[in-house]
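Good day; I would like, with your permission, to put a structural problem before you. What I wish to show you is a protein chain and, alongside it, a tokenised description of its three-dimensional fold. Please examine both parts with care and let me know of anything in them that strikes you as inconsistent. Thank you for your consideration; the sequence and its tokens are set out here:

***
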Amino acid sequence: MYIQEVAASLYAWDLADEGIERIAGTLQERSLVNCLYLVGVMHYEKRPLTSLFYTHNPVRKYYLPENSRVYYRLDPASFKNTRLKPRFSQQEFLAGTDWLDVLTQEARRRGMKAGIELSHTIFDTDIARSEFPDTLQVNVEGEPINAVQGMLCPNHPDVHEYQRAMFYDTVKNHDVDLVQTCLLTFAEGSIAKAPWFFEPWMDIEHPSLGALLGLANGGCFCKHCQEKANRLGYDWERMVRDVKKLRRVAGATPYRFQQELMENNLTLGSNVSESLLLIEYPGLLDFIRFRIDSITELFRDIYESVHEAKPEIDFRYNNHVRLPEYTGISFKHIAPYLDSVRDSDYSEQTGAKDGFVYKRNTLFKIRRGIGFDRKLIAALASRPNATPELIRQSIRVMSETGVDGISLGHYDGAHMEHLDAVGQGIREAGIEVRTE
């Protein structure tokens, strides 16, 4: 089997603490990495994520990133058509350095590809809440979505233009081969899960029905979404009516929305199918389709912008959710506006108790959507909770799924024996890495 890419993501503080030469050499020699990319905008999230301390950082035990700060230069002129402006790192040891240029220069010196990721939130949502509250997603009752990291509405003109400009400027002004994103799109919502509200026979963890019902607590129903829905020909009133009804069902407890409690219990406690729910509430299906149309339009605009800046750029979506269609992502819809997809399944760090069935099935789901003209990159966890044996086993599974590349997640928390296992697994599986 042949693959084109073995990729690894790095953070600005990795480069500042360990040095790009040391990191690049380690990854190239131990894991056969031929592509490095910087997480150039990172959401607020303790690093390393899945363990208490770093495994090989010589400067610090852990790091708390600033919220959605940029670690490379951007041209202010690119953002003249939006109120949202990039916010840069204010950490003394990070500010004033273009860490993307630091990474790309070393990658080129080693004959490697170079790229960048714009992660989940590319604008500080704390600032959005205080200065631009109109940009935040709201539920069907007009209430702000209380997501952990905050959710901006992709249909808001300022948000849409800011996101487009971020990708365009990054590609136009930097020597990158790929630009990857795992943007948070639409808030999914959820059902009430306090244990005393349910009987043991109720399938509240049903992988699809509960998530589908929970969409009624998601967003967005702002005026910009209403305008776009009307422009696209959706029946906004039906959508609002049905989602409002289901929101009461999804949130029913003995103390709240009591009239819908029996409907909640009988829905989650039966073998009702998702199809039946969509038939009974056609506005819910409209809601899903509208969100897919909205995100497809956003991806189209980003795709056209980055290819205008650099025709040969690889625009990559990093899939990170179990049911992407519930967030507005349909692979068949966005396939014309992508060059590749990375699937960030990290079954290795949880023991892969299913024998990597979920990883394999998800890769096939994505391939079904994007076809064979676009590249499919499979991620694996090289972090402490994985084992070398699981990493090698995972790579063997990947070799049977027709992927075009492998991506490590993530260097900052990896044991050296795990990085060694990546190279060993590639060789044992008979995989040959061919650079385009």
Observations:
- The longest strand covers residues 35-42.
- The chain has a mean pLDDT of 93.
